[in-house]
């Protein structure tokens, strides 16, 4: 999807917004990095008005979906580790370290260097999935299932986990590929609640529209970029805007498509390998895998006491003027409430940003990613034609607090590249030739580099946010669209703030919660 032009020091750039247009969606094409939200992040979600979504409530749902393969003795010796109590061992989604462990010598050097660069305030943890990842560095596990019979790793996408395996075959399920949902057919009952009675679907190659009747519920799962578009084409959204497109509004819900957000990535960072480091336990060998070591410093680790106090103050006194005028939030309170909760999350120990290390065969990459952006944009259809992508505008880095986080991350990348033992693995001129600002660069130079080189984090969330309706929320904590009796949403669009450092493992937890809510409703209707 072509994103709208975004800010950048060398002029507005149009950034492509990548997603998986296939069975399994993003999980079929993504980088498989296995991250989870944290206690601090889930506390923010709960405090936003979502009782029952705190860490302790949410962890069992993530465990339900997971089969974790613990590292074997060789992998343990090479530095992989885990905490059994926080994992699941019977779910459909495989999570494991790659076998064999990729580039253990690089992993070792990366972990030591991170600790040195953060003056030992970032410590080694066995497992980033225990809810307290702020202030830690660890080996990264991935969405991988190790197949004992084939003796090989296999991507554990949602399709390979929930659709293809023999154990998942069931009656009453039809998967229709090569088609897209146009819109929902609805009726409005006395009392004003909207009920979906049908779904209109059309072949992507063109042809006759199919109409399906709804006997119970519709669960919308088009993802953050497309679920709002399905609702909008169905007349659910900002009523006055829908009218300008000739769509008859059935439910005025201005939050549909608002609150769209994404993290940013700093990926323009590649350091050529020193000739002496050109051996397999430093390089990826045949197993190129993105992000084999991950570091999550807290705001205090990254900015120190004075810097983090200043950031805290910026968040607590933020002006909502820009996001409001850009259509990113439905009212100022929506933004200021989220800003306050982000500040609270940083105070607990929420990761401030993420740094991850990737080995290639000729270069080592050190990428950084922000986690909790506050800039807010929107997803908005501008035609009723479902084959035309909606306008997707994340308003990346339009709030200065988000730039400050990215600048702090960029500064640590250059310090890592300049610090042994990591620097011993790359050529002496690697940092100078990389384009990454030098360790002595001014804040202005680093900002310039960030704005001209950042790319989308591709962890889109928030465009049908689970939060109170008066803040622009679209779904309730049971994931039911406000004002409807049977339209539920179960994808990343419901996640109101980017508390998932990488989205997929958390989203399986969201899906499990949706399944439970659907069964509860079905049970109460059958009883
Ligand atoms: C290149 C890339 C790398 C990533 N790396 C990682 C990673 O390493 N770790 C991680 O955790 N996450 C990663 N992510 C993010 C993660 O994959 C996504 O956040 C996640 O897949 C979103 O899940 P979803 O169910 O919300 O939506 P999606 O996965 O986007 O699924 C939506 C599905 O709906 C379909 N659809 C859309 N509109 C319609 C319609 N009108 N009718 C019918 N079907 C429709 C789409 O084709 C798609 O199959 C990455 C994403 C990308 C794109």
UniProtKB/TrEMBL annotation:
Does Transport show up as a keyword for this record? Answer: no
Q: Which residues form the Glucose-methanol-choline oxidoreductase N-terminal domain?
A: 223-237
**Which is one GO molecular function term here?**
oxidoreductase activity, acting on CH-OH group of donors
For this protein, the record's PROSITE patterns field holds: GMC_OXRED_2 (PS00624)
Active-site residue list? 459, 502
Annotated FAD binding sites: 181
Concerning InterPro entries, the annotation shows: FAD/NAD-bd_sf, Glucose_Oxidase_domain_2, GMC_OxRdtase, GMC_OxRdtase_N, GMC_OxRtase_C
Database matches in SUPFAM superfamilies: FAD-linked reductases, C-terminal domain, FAD/NAD(P)-binding domain
Q: Where are the transmembrane segments?
A: none
Q: Would I find Protein biosynthesis among this entry's keywords? A: no
Keywords tagged on the record: FAD, Flavoprotein, Glycoprotein, Oxidoreductase, Signal
Q: Which cofactor does it need?
A: FAD
For this chain, the family text in UniProt reads: Belongs to the GMC oxidoreductase family.
Q: By what name is this protein known?
A: Unplaced genomic scaffold GYMLUscaffold_60, whole genome shotgun sequence
């Amino acid at each position: 999807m072509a994103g709208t032009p975004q800010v950048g020091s060398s002029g507005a750039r149009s950034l492509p917004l990548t997603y998986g247009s296939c069975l399994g969606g993003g999980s079929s094409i993504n980088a498989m990095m296995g991250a989870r939200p944290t206690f601090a992040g889930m506390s923010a979600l709960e405090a936003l008005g979502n009782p029952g979504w705190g860490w302790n409530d949410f962890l069992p749902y993530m465990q339900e979906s997971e089969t974790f393969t613990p590292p074997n003795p060789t992998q343990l010796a090479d530095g992989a580790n885990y905490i059994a109590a926080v994992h699941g061992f019977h779910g459909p989604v495989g999570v494991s370290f790659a076998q064999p462990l990729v580039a253990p010598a690089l992993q070792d050097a990366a972990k030591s260097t991170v600790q040195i660069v953060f003056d030992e305030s970032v410590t080694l943890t066995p497992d980033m999935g225990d809810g307290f990842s702020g202030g830690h560095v660890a080996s990264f596990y991935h969405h991988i299932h190790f197949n004992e019979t084939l003796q090989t790793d296999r991507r554990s996408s949602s399709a390979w986990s929930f659709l293809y395996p023999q154990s998942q075959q069931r009656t009453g399920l039809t998967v229709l590929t090569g088609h897209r949902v146009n819109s929902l057919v609805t009726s409005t009952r006395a009392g004003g609640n909207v009920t979906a009675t049908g779904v209109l679907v059309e072949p992507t190659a063109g042809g006759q529209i199919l109409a399906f009747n709804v006997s119970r519920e519709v669960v919308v799962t088009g993802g953050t970029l497309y679920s709002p578009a399905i609702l909008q084409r169905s007349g659910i959204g900002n009523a006055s805007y829908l009218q300008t497109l000739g769509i008859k509004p059935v439910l005025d819900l201005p939050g549909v498509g608002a609150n769209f957000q994404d993290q940013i990535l700093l990926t323009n960072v590649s350091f050529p390998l020193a000739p002496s480091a050109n051996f397999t336990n430093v390089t990826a060998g045949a197993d190129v895998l993105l992000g084999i070591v991950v570091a999550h410093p807290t705001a205090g680790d990254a900015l120190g006491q004075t810097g983090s106090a200043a950031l805290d103050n910026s968040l607590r006194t933020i002006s909502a003027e820009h996001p409001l005028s850009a259509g990113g939030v439905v009212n100022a309170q929506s933004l200021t409430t989220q800003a306050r909760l982000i500040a609270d999350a940083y105070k607990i120990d929420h990761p401030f940003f993420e740094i991850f290390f990737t080995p290639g065969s000729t270069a080592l990459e050190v990428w950084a990613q922000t986690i909790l952006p506050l800039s807010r944009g929107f997803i908005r259809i501008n035609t009723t034609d479902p084959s035309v992508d909606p306008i997707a505008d994340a308003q990346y880095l339009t709030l200065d607090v988000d730039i400050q986080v990215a600048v702090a991350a960029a500064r640590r990348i250059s310090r890592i590249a300049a610090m042994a033992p990591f620097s011993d693995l790359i050529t002496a001129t690697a940092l100078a030739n990389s384009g990454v600002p030098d360790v002595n660069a001014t804040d202005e130079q680093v900002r310039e580099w960030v704005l001209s080189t950042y790319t989308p984090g591709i962890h889109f969330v928030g465009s049908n946010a689970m939060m109170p309706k008066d803040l622009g929320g679209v779904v309730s904590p049971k994931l039911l669209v406000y004002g409807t009796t049977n339209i539920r949403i179960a994808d990343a669009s419901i996640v109101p703030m980017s508390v998932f450092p990488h989205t997929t493992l958390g989203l399986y937890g969201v899906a499990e919660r949706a399944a439970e809510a659907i069964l509860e409703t079905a049970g109460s209707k059958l009883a």
